[in-house]
Design brief:
The protein has 225 residues and is α+β, with helices and mostly antiparallel strands. It has one domain (23-199, 211-224): Lipoprotein localisation LolA/LolB/LppX (outer membrane lipoprotein receptor (LolB), chain A, Clam). It is 15% helix and 45% strand. It has a twelve-stranded mixed sheet with strand order 7-8-9-10-11-1-2-3-4-5-6-12. The radius of gyration is 18 Å and the shape is globular.
Length: 225
Amino acid sequence: MHRFVVTAALASLASLAAAPLPAQGSVDATIDRAVAAYARMKSARATFEQTLLNPLTGTTVVAKGEMLQQKPGRLSVRFTDPQGDRIVSDGKVLWAYLPSSNPRQVMKMPLTEGGAGSVDLAEQFLKEPRAKYRIADAGAATVSGRATRALSLVPKQPMQFTKATVWIDDRDGTLRQFEVTDGNGLSRKVRLTSLTLNVPVASDAFTFTPPKGVKVFDQTAMMNQ
């Protein structure tokens, strides 16, 4: 139900100048700051709110939780709503345990860069973005009490989403919110409600043991056949 691919953590750089800039200059300055800030991030701790909007069914699903991320490819997500759902990646394998929708199964998937098997959509947005997207200014907005500049990203080549918007913090260049929309109109918006960068990480933070009695669907084994 919630294909979480979070996240979100960018490092500090200089803030934008107070005086307004020409539109393209503002876009260039914002994306450059975000790319450089993300490159400096090593780990992050955050709380988030995710909203999934499905226009085909007319449904909106909101989830909340907390996450711990460490480059490269390590992620731990604990959903507080729905309580008990977990997403864990050790850098090689992604575990998805969502008892709110499938209480008797665990998905074990190979980790990939970007897309459904990724734990770091921020990398997809901020790694060589000019080569991947047509980028345009989408206006100023306040996200979780932070002043941000929104950028519209339209893929130059086919991707799993047809358009995206990212909200970049004016002060430190962090990614504070993103929204992606696929070809069917399904949209996913992830808003960080708190964010701390380069936090200490325990050695066992990204391990997962399937609960007793659940069935493990091992997609990594299928790929190795």
